[in-house]
Design brief:
Elements lengths: L9 E6 L4 E6 L2 E3 L2 E4 L5 E5 L2 E7 L1 H22 L5 H14 L7 E8 L5 E6 L5 E4 L2 E5 L2 H11 L6 H16 L9 E6 L4 E6 L5
Antiparallel strand pairs: 1-2, 1-10, 2-11, 3-4, 5-6, 6-7, 7-8, 8-9, 11-12
Length: about 200
């Protein structure tokens, strides 16, 4: 078993019309044994920027703490929040710094940039970025997430339709992966508000 599959995870970020959604499953497991059903994989950096971390749970929490520290230093020095593109470069640099003993994480970054343009990207454990204009996925359920998102995504979705699409894609995908699931956690972010919802999923 790959170390990336040790805890199991499913992450997805998708863009809409001047908004984006980021969602994850809630299961924390040790291989096939479930430890918790309310595990947090999505972190708020600021009101317009969110970070999802899939992979080894302990490395994800360590990496998140380092990123919070660096973002706070940036806020003190620049007196403003980081743009999503800048934050993606920071995450990439921190991961590449540790390339010979990497954090076993696959980050998903989603944010609203200038003129409320949504930005999403993911990267591998050594910081090689993959930018997308529609959706990005990560985690052990990523294969089935790709299929669900390909079939459900359409351009220019409003926030409510985007929420419905992301939720259906997530729930149908984790049913096909025994290492992730047990409900979902969805954030839909628009220029004016952040909506957070918990999804109930299959518990078997």
């Amino acid at each position: 078993m790959s170390i990336f599959e040790y805890n199991g995870s499913a992450l997805i970020a998708m863009v809409g019309k001047n908004c984006f959604a980021i969602a994850s499953d809630r299961r924390l497991g040790v291989q096939l044994q479930t430890i918790a059903t309310d595990f947090q994989r999505i972190y708020k950096v600021h009101d317009r920027l969110f970070l999802g971390l899939s992979g080894l749970a302990t490395d994800a929490q360590t990496l998140y703490q380092r990123l919070v520290f660096r973002h706070k230093l940036y806020q003190l020095r620049e007196e403003r929040d980081m743009k999503p593109e800048t934050f993606a470069n920071l995450v990439s640099a921190i991961l590449y710094e540790k390339r010979f003993g990497p954090y076993f994480c696959q980050p998903v970054i989603a944010g609203l940039g200038d003129e409320d343009k949504p930005f999403i990207c993911t990267m591998d454990s050594i910081g090689a970025k993959e930018l997308a204009k529609d959706f990005v996925v990560a985690g052990t359920a990523s294969e089935s997430l790709y299929g669900a998102c390909e079939s459900m995504f359409k351009e220019g979705m409003e926030p409510e339709e985007l929420f419905e699409t992301v939720s259906q894609a997530l729930l149908s995908s984790v049913d096909r992966d025994c290492l992730s699931g047990w409900g979902g956690h969805v954030y839909v972010v628009t220029p004016t508000e952040v909506k957070e919802r918990i999804l109930k999923g299959r518990m078997d």
